[in-house]
Amino acid sequence: MEYVSSVFLSSLEFLSIILLMFTIFNLSFKRFYLYTVFICLFLANVSHYLRNSGLEEQKLLSVSIQMILFVILVWLLYRINILWAIVVAIIGYASYIVIQLCIFYILLMTGFMTAEELVPNTEKYYTLQFLSILAPLIISHFLKTVNWHLNFIPTKKYLKLKLKNENLILILVSIVTFLVSGILYYSISVGQTTIFFTTSVLQLLTISILLYYSVRKEINNDY
User: Fold this and answer.
1) Rounded distance between C-alpha atoms, residue 121 and residue 103, angstroms
2) What is the pTM for the complete model shown?
3) Total domain count for the chain?
């Protein structure tokens, strides 16, 4: 039962990440239903295995491993240039993390839970997980309603990408965001609340930079 609930909720998490990612970058979702189901179930099972493997190294690196696999799957299955796949996947994943952090801090301020209670497979963790799944879906619906999206990501897998200006900045900041995300979840795993709060601020900063340069690239029509 614990396996079913864990994989089911994790699958919904990855689905909300993918829907938010597709909405932000105005990518066509119609051709990729089966691929999306595969990605969600595959990564959900990877997440469950890493959390319950009994190996501390795998638990601590769980999110980093999942993010790397997510980038690879976005590249291979959604047919996006590998460098743009890094940007798209990291922005999608990191946006979800920031949304989850905002919800967590709201629950923290209301006294519903503490940083020490941020433990997987508990009632309060499931509540945070459910709200974290719901929020990106609401945001995606709102962005579609107001017709806000970015169009600069080419959908040709082997299209050559010029590493200059905003392109280079986006890729480098995406890599930094990946590292910060790994440290953030590592701090949760080892119970380091000071590192957790510090990296939360860094996570917000890096995703803000990514979105800023993405919007700037869109405004300048730098496709």
Assistant:
1) 18
2) 0.89
3) 1
